[in-house]
Amino acid sequence: MNWRSEFQRLEGAYAPATMRSYYSDVEIFVAWCSERGLPPFPAEVRTVCAFLEAQAPELAPASVRRRLYAIRKAHRLLRLPDPTQDEDINLTLRRVRRAKHTRPVQAKGLTREYLDRFLEVQPETPWGLRNRALLSIGYDILARRSELVALRQSDLTWRADGTLKVLIRRGKADPFGEGRIAFTSRRTCDLVDAWLGWRGIAIEPLFCPIYQLKPINRTLSTTTVKAVIKSAARSAGLDASLVNAFSGHSLRVGAAQDLLCAGHDTAAIMRAGGWKCVNVLGRYLEHAEHNVWL
After folding, report:
1. Which region, left, alpha or beta, applies to residue 107 given φ > 0 means left and ψ of -120 to 50 means alpha?
2. For residue 186, which of 89, 132, 162, 245 is within the disulfide window of CB 3.0 to 4.6 Å?
3. Model pTM score
4. pLDDT tens digit string along 265-283?
């Protein structure tokens, strides 16, 4: 069966990253079945169980569960009996989770202390102008790196108090683009103005690549955000282990931790970062060093 053509029906309904995961996971399942002479569609319950158990030694439980979801989606798109709802599947997943006691790896929080140091070490070049603005606004609005590179100048509103109002049009927890509003500091507004003063008004993305001292009219890749953060950490003289702990998610993590340390409650932090689930936010905040009043 041509499952790939059926998956094309999902285009536009799911984020590109989700679609890439679906294609990759189903291809792995089909290849695994082919090597063993087993039919992938429709798959038998015992086939899916064996596949999940075979994936477990090399993957985190969450990744095994993601592959199960891809197999489920493929069967539904092909309008085949769904083997993934059987109780044996649930038992297999429980065994996978119990056998591997791992905690999700949390990115190092890029807190205000680190932000100040990272801004100071940026060079006096167009790249430095861009990176200062990118780091500062990313911290202020608790941006995921995908949200950060998606910003347009039209998403910014300059306010009378010297700050910015920012519209984050779509995020991981906002697949239908309802958007959320965030606000920046005066410093961030000044850094954005300095960057835009060099970049000019003919570029659509707020942050763009620079080639031979010229701005290029396309968005930055999300990997560039990660590279900027790690490069700043190295330039700030941090130990290699600390540099490795930072990621493209560190701005969001660090800003959330600082809000907790400043005494803001859970509801305020969730609103600022667009979180929908308290449990997810809890993972961000567990390493925050805040005062406990007895």
Report:
1. beta
2. 162
3. 0.71
4. 888 888 888 777 776 666 6
